[in-house]
Amino acid sequence: MFENIILGAVQGIVEWLPVSSEAVLVLIVRHFFDSGAAIEAVIKQALLLHLGTFLAALVYFRKDVRLLIEALFNYKSAGSETQKIFKFLIIATLLSGFLGVILLKIFVGLDAGLSLSTKAITLAIGLLLLITGALQIRIREEGYKKAGALKIKDGLLLGFVQGLSVLPGLSRSGLTVSTFLLRGFDKFYALKLSFLMSLPIVLGGNIIFNFQRLMFSPEMALGLVFSFIFGILTIDLLLKLAKKINFGYFVLFFGILVIVSIFI
Fold first, then answer.
1. Which tens digit of pLDDT belongs to each residue from 14-66?
2. Of the candidates 200, 176, 157, which has an alpha carbon nearest to the alpha carbon of residue 69?
3. What is the helix (H) or strand (E) element at residue 25, kind and residue range?
4. 171 φ/ψ sector (left φ>0, alpha ψ -120 to 50, else beta)
5. Cα separations in angstroms, 92 against 64, 86, 143
6. Entry pTM
7. Do the beta carbons of residue 177 and residue 18 sit within 8 Å?
8. Domain containing residue 119
9. Of all helices (H) and strands (E), which one includes residue 45?
10. What count of other Cβ atoms lies within 10 Å of the Cβ of residue 66?
11. Are 256 and 21 in contact (CB under 8 A)?
């Protein structure tokens, strides 16, 4: 029970930062709670905890979500910007979902086939964190495009990038926001679109990997509650902070610490 409270609180805070919340949860479980847990089980647990921050994002972006739901039933009457966001989300979700499932199976297969140790997984996560941090440091800060400038190629590119983030250590928000900025989008819209992208993929991922096998328990429900509470309490502050600060150096430093911890 204590494990789920801690993991839920961590998920609720870290989700809004360009740091891989999945990597942080995997590291915490492996090092502090049950280092023998299979990587597949840990990833699925992290995915389930994402439902808490999914609900928090749903509440925070409720106006945008309402417009998208209305577009689902009456696309022609929706505004031009809403239509473009709607098409973008469909393309990005389908591509990232397909790629994510393939990469997850490969990653889990490597863990099972090679019996990867905690140190090996920690090293892999640390290296992926370094990649995320380096990308964020190199992004342009200026941007002028808004949601109305979304094109099909943006959906394909962002869908591919989001699919890669299934690997622990590659921050979903960090990679997608960085890609939006590289594409010339304003930072406000980059953050907004990034988290709108997370809603269908988190829900779909849980339906595929968790709900069908009924991976639910009172302890997990407690983790979801804490994930939602901490998520709703921190989302506004941390999103505003993320707009002002380049977290690339923090992610880079965190990745180095993760790698150094292997030898301590």
1. 888 777 777 778 778 777 776 555 666 777 778 888 889 999 999 999 999 99
2. 200
3. helix 21-28
4. beta
5. 17, 10, 21
6. 0.79
7. yes
8. 2-261
9. helix 39-60
10. 10
11. no
Could you give the CA distance from residue 195 to residue 183 in angstroms, rounded to a whole number?
17
Count of structural domains within the chain: 1
Instruction: For residue 2, give the H/E element and its range.
Output: helix 2-14
User: If DSSP codes are grouped into helix, strand and coil, which group holds residue 145?
Assistant: strand
DSSP designation for 116: -
CA dist 232 and 228 (Å) reads 6
Of 162, 174, 140, the C-alpha closest to 247 is 174
* Calpha distance 53→22 (Å, rounded): 12
pLDDT beyond 90 at 188: no
DSSP 165: T
Q: Which residues pair with 77 in a beta bridge?
A: none
Residue bearing tokens 């019996």 = 115
Tokens standing for residue 117:
């140790």
DSSP 167-229: STTS-HHHHHHHHHHHTTB-HHHHHHHHHHHHHHHHHHHHHHHTGGGT---HHHHHHHHHHHH
